[in-house]
Amino acid sequence: MDTLLIRGGRPLHGVVPVSGAKNASLPILIATVVAPGEHRLQNVPDLVDTSSMLSLLGRIGCPSLVGDTTRVDTSRVAFCEAPYDLVRKMRASVLALGPLLARCGEAHVSLPGGCAIGVRPIDQHLKGLEALGCRFDLEGGYVHGRVDKLRGAEFRFDLVTVTGTENVLMAAVLAEGTTVLENAAAEPEVEDLAKFLSGCGARIEGAGTSRIVVHGVSSLRPSPQAHRILPDRIEAGTYLVAGVITRGNVRCEGASASDLAPVLEVLRNAGAEIDHGEGWVSAGASGRVRPFDITTAPHPGFPTDMQAQVMSLASLALGTSSITETIFENRFMHVAELMRLGARVHIDGRTATVTGQPCLSGATVMATDLRASASLVLAGLAAEGTTEILRLYHLDRGYERLVEKLSAVGASVMRGQEGRPNLAVA
Ligand code: EPU
Predict the structure, then answer these.
(1) Which of 20, 95, 298, 406 is within CB 3.0–4.6 Å of 160 for a Cys-Cys bond?
(2) Could you give the CA distance from residue 324 to residue 310 in angstroms, rounded to a whole number?
(3) pLDDT tens-digit series, residues 389-413
(4) Which of 26, 126, 157, 163 to mutate to test the pocket of ligand 1 (most atoms within 8 A of CB)?
(5) pLDDT tens string 157-213
């Protein structure tokens, strides 16, 4: 199995190009199903998760061609099933539910089950789709959904769910009448999905706010213009923290300062130098940052997907920081591994108290999920000595060309093989 070897302690300086957002690409790739024909998408990142979504499209009968422009042909849908072997690899396969119900009137999607960061039920996806007229049975580990005719409805989510909002939105665009979604997710990725669907002829208002209104249309067709996926704010945020934690300065080309606002505010308050302009954001520091307090929340709050990364930064701050996770019940898996590098963290329920240390020291650590892995990379970049991160496959799910991008800004990092004597990184 691949590992990542990092020789820490080098300030990173330079420019990192930001890839297209994973969490916008996944719903948009499957949303192509609601508009039969050939779609063209730009800026789809080359990640294990996007490949899994393309495999799912292939399984249901929609071939694709990957390149600078990714093409997906949804002229024909032969099967309406997202099987366990794909859903198991990638929970976002559950996003097939709404589009398949809208296109075929039925969908058979394996229940995703829990994962490293929590139980992650899909009750809100099902309730929202039921409000539009869908019926569901659970059998053999699968959700079997059917609908004769989708009808617009008013629906209020009990809690804010990103993929839940996306699933219901993808069905509502083809429902008869108007759908009003209250307490909807306002994440930029939901807005990008709505933009894609609007390009196909959908009539959507309020995407990017907590109230989305959808006026159903009878059919959709691929947009004549290619849709360009928005830049990945979490990837950008991770590289910005890399600039700050290594006491260098990293400029993320393609990043949007407004989508990153809650992250930039925390970094700025911690004393980082932040600058931004049209299509770029930079962050750096010349010494240890001040401690900070964050609480994760749905957009425009502080994103849970950046919580682990800023914890690495807090572990080197000049005092005690407090980090509260409100979105997922089990998203402190990185803490024990960070402590192996010398971080001092105390967890009490949903809050981690992080006492900043003057330095961290390299060690072998285990990645447990995507963002936990990113936090270990950041800690490893700042630590003295060599850090080896095992189970690198988590990072390949969400960070395109990570080694190349980090190397280009001066990091000493390379892939290795678990269990093999690794060459020392330069
Ligand atoms: N929840 C329910 N019932 C539901 C749906 C969600 O109880 O029907 C709970 C979840 O268990 C969680 C909370 O609601 O406690 C919020 O979960 P949400 O549904 O918003 O998460 P998600 O849609 O499964 C997406 C991203 C995640 C990101 C979260 C929160 C994608 C493909 N995934 O997941 O991204 O952390 O929103 O912003 O968009 C990542 O990229 O590393 C990642 C995990």
Answers:
(1) 298
(2) 12
(3) 999 889 999 999 999 999 999 999 9
(4) 163
(5) 999 999 999 999 999 999 999 999 999 999 999 999 999 999 999 999 999 999 999
Check if 302 has its Cβ closer than 6 Å to any atom of ligand 1: no
pLDDT at 423: 52
Query: Residue 160 C-alpha to ligand 1 middle, in angstroms?
Result: 9
The closest-lying atom of ligand 1 relative to the alpha carbon of residue 159 is 14
Question: Which has the higher per-residue pLDDT, 421 or 230?
Answer: 230
Q: Which alpha helices (DSSP H) does 105-223 contain, by range?
A: 123-131, 162-172, 188-199
The CATH H-level superfamily of 22-228 is: Enolpyruvate transferase domain (3.65.10.10)
Atom 37 (ligand 1) nearest CA: 162
Please name which of 371, 325, 385 lies closest in space to residue 7, comparing C-alpha atoms: 385
| CATH 3.65.10.10 residue window(s) in the chain | 2-19+231-417, 22-228
pLDDT in tens, 320-358: 999 999 999 889 999 999 999 999 999 999 999 999 999
User: Is residue 119 pLDDT above 80, yes or no?
Assistant: no
Q: Is the CB of 305 under 6 A from ligand 1?
A: yes
Spatial CB neighbours of 139, under 8 Å, sequence gap ≥ 6 = none
* CATH fold label, 2-19+231-417: UDP-n-acetylglucosamine1-carboxyvinyl-transferase; Chain (3.65.10)
Q: What is the pLDDT of residues 363-378, one digit of tens each?
A: 999 988 999 999 999 9
Ligand 1 near 125 CB (within 6 A): yes
Strand-pairing partners, residue 159, are: none
Task: Give the per-residue pLDDT at 1.
Answer: 84
Q: Does the Cβ of 370 fall within 6 Å of ligand 1?
A: yes
Band of pLDDT at residue 425, cut at 50, 70 and 90: low
With vertex at residue 131, the alpha carbon angle to CA 296 and CA 95, rounded to the nearest 5 degrees, is 55
Helix 22-31, helix 48-59: angle, nearest 10: 10
> pLDDT for 67-77, tens place per residue?
999 999 999 99
Q: Would the CB of 328 count as within 6 Å of ligand 1?
A: yes
Which atom, in ligand 1's list, is nearest to the CA of 118? Answer: 11
Residues identified as active-site: 115
> Is the CB of 309 within 6 Å of ligand 1?
no
Return d(Cα 248, Cα 101) in angstroms, integer.
Answer: 50
- How many CA atoms are closer than 13 Å to the CA of 44, on its beta-carbon side? 28
For the chain, the average pLDDT equals 95
Q: Which atom of ligand 1 is nearest to the CA of 163?
A: 23
